[in-house]
Specification:
The complex is a heterodimer of chains A (about 260) and B (about 300).
Chain A lengths: L1 H4 L5 H7 L1 H38 L9 H18 L1 H4 L26 H10 L33 H14 L6 H12 L5 H4 L26 H10 L14 H14 L2
Chain B lengths: L1 H4 L8 H26 L12 E5 L2 E4 H12 L8 H23 L7 H15 L1 H5 L4 H10 L9 E9 L7 H15 L4 H8 L1 E3 L6 E3 H8 L1 H7 L11 E3 L2 E11 L6 H31 L10
Antiparallel strand pairs in B: 1-2, 3-4, 3-5, 3-7, 6-7
Helix pairs in contact in B: 3-4, 7-12, 8-9, 10-11
Classes of the chains: A mainly alpha (about 260), B alpha+beta (about 300).
């Protein structure tokens, strides 16, 4: 053939001209395609079966199954990187500049960190507009004429804000001006109504997402007077999308399991 | 050995191979079509999807909601709940679902004010779901911050002494002379207390220590505040007349509003950006509904 056309074929092509060789190649290619299809089908079947198992399990049973836990974590990692890491960081450490909490510790702004609690937050979000979202309270902006949109609250003077800051410093057992802290205590429990969300013992309320003010963990900033002042004067209202309308139920549950297992 | 076992696919036996490949292709196609057909949205389902605890007339009751309600209602997890608690909760959730479906059949939402409000809120939320679930890029936030920079400034704070005559001031030259004398004395650096005693002035009581601008505006009134906010530290105003008489303003400290850096205002910018986007989408939806609706309006309101 090469002689007839006058073209010198490369060695591989010459090898393929042989019918026996050609048959072998096509048979091999066919077998590879079939095996690949079979592998893809088996993999899809396995994922589908595991997804169903993950969704059918009661959330507090999931940690007891190492296989399910492994499957969920493996499935969730790329989803987390794509959708969550932008705010909460690739290492789940959070971002205090934007008030995205760390997902690695034992401290939870909403709920108690069970898979069920995390799943509810993921499904419906925080201040996402979904009617099942966590959206019962915001941090008022006390340096504005109308600090709170939900009900009437008085603005605070700069001096009162300073006093509250001193009170918070004292509560965290940091050096503080005792007289100012005493006045701040009165503002906290009176005019500003801080106790209503953060509770009288300042330990916060994880039902409405009010942070604990007695520990050294900060949702926004670093706990400096400036960052405390910014929170008190301008308010805070972080949000998280309702992933239930974006991701599949299985993906949401896998994410919840991943976050749960990362926090332990 | 493996290749020899696959002799059915041998190139020599074309009819058998073609038949086999055709059959595999047909089976695969049927499987894909069947999967699509029986799992498509709106399809009548006989099997319970794994994420649901029940289907009532094809409407799902979510397993996650069931677990959340179990915790909220009985304060136990679903695994720890008794069979009685499980049955009771499921029964209640089924009851609610069926009643909701019946209410929709009876068109109850269109006449019940609470249901109407809930429906409006639900549609607004649905319309804005793209905005609420999107994460704006940093560049978009910075652009928004620059476009709305006026919103992101600190609140001005002033500490001001607002002096008024202690006794009624005659409208004559002597009265005005007294006020001008007090202004000159203050500008020459005499102490506030001494000038007040010497010229018969007292503080109006409208300003008490540091005041945020908006509070000072309310307390002083528009005329005095307009002057006060332009004053510098330690500046003394000329005698000013307001609706309640003469005033002299002594600015002890005036911290004017300052632009907040993007980093400091970022969380607020983020919320405002998303709120604006949601409002914009809701306006568009309303406009779209308005345009396609057949609305007849009474002549007097046209």
């Amino acid at each position: 053939m090469a002689q007839r056309s006058g073209i010198e074929r490369p060695p591989a092509a010459r090898w393929l001209v042989n019918k026996r060789h050609r048959d072998r190649v096509f048979t091999l290619l066919g077998a590879v395609c079939l095996l690949s299809l079979l592998a893809i089908g088996l993999r899809a079947g396995y994922i589908s079966r595991m997804n169903a198992r993950l969704l059918r399990s009661w959330t507090d049973d999931i940690p007891r199954s190492a296989g399910l836990l492994r499957f969920a974590v493996g499935r969730a990692q790329p989803i987390y990187r794509m959708h969550c890491a932008g705010c909460h960081g690739t290492d789940l450490a959070g971002n205090r500049q934007i008030g995205a909490p760390s997902l690695r510790g034992h401290y939870w702004l909403y709920g108690n960190g069970t898979i069920g609690d995390i799943e509810q937050t993921l499904l419906y979000g925080i201040r996402s507009g979904h009617h099942k979202a966590h959206s019962l309270a915001d941090m008022p902006a006390f340096a504005t004429a109308r600090p709170y949109a939900r009900y009437a609250l008085s603005s605070l003077t700069p001096g009162e804000v300073d006093d509250v800051i001193q009170f918070l410093r004292l509560a965290e057992q940091r050096p503080a001006d005792a007289d100012a802290a005493r006045r701040g205590y009165a503002v906290y429990n009176g005019k500003a109504q801080c106790y209503d969300c953060h509770t009288s013992d300042l330990r916060g309320d994880n039902y409405i997402g009010a942070p604990n003010l007695r520990d050294d963990k900060w949702l926004y900033g670093d706990g400096s007077d400036e960052s405390l002042r910014a929170s008190i004067e301008y308010g805070r209202a972080g949000s998280c999308p309702a992933w239930g309308s974006i991701l599949s139920r299985a993906a949401v549950r896998a994410l919840a399991v991943y976050i749960y297992s990362s926090s332990r | 050995v493996f290749l020899s076992k696959l002799k059915y696919l041998s190139w020599d036996q074309r009819p058998r191979r073609s038949l086999l490949i055709g059959a595999i292709g047909a089976a695969l196609g049927l499987a894909i079509a069947g999967f699509g057909l029986f799992t498509a949205a709106g399809t009548q389902r006989r099997a319970l999807p794994p994420e649901d605890i029940a289907l009532a007339n094809q409407h799902p009751i979510l397993r996650s909601d069931y677990e959340a309600q179990m915790l909220a209602r009985f304060n136990v997890t679903a695994t720890a709940a008794t069979p009685e608690q499980r049955r009771q909760l499921l029964d209640d959730m089924l009851r609610e679902e069926l009643f909701v479906q019946r209410a929709l059949e009876l068109d109850e939402p269109s006449i019940d004010p609470d249901a109407r409000a809930a429906l409006v809120a639900a549609v607004q939320q649905q319309v804005a779901v793209d905005a609420t679930s999107s994460i704006p890029a940093e560049a978009q936030l910075r652009q928004y911050y620059q476009q709305h920079s006026g919103k992101y400034s600190t609140v001005g704070v002033m500490t001001l002494a607002d002096l008024i005559p202690a006794a009624a001031l005659g409208g004559d030259a002597a009265g005005m002379g007294r006020l001008n004398g007090a202004v000159n004395a203050l500008r020459q650096g005499q102490s506030l207390a001494r000038v007040m005693a010497e010229y018969g002035l007292r503080e109006s009581g409208k300003m008490n220590g540091e005041q945020l601008y908006f509070a000072a505006q309310i307390n002083l009134g528009e005329i005095l505040f307009a002057t006060a906010q332009r004053m510098s530290d330690a500046e003394v105003s000329a005698p000013l007349t307001a609706s309640d008489g003469w005033h002299i303003l002594v600015m002890l400290k005036n911290a004017r509003p300052q632009q907040r850096a993007f980093g400091a205002a970022r969380s607020q910018v983020y919320n405002d950006y998303k709120s604006d986007l949601e409002a914009q989408m809701q306006r568009s939806e309303y406009q779209y509904l308005r345009d396609r609706a057949d609305i007849i309006i009474a002549p007097e309101l046209r």
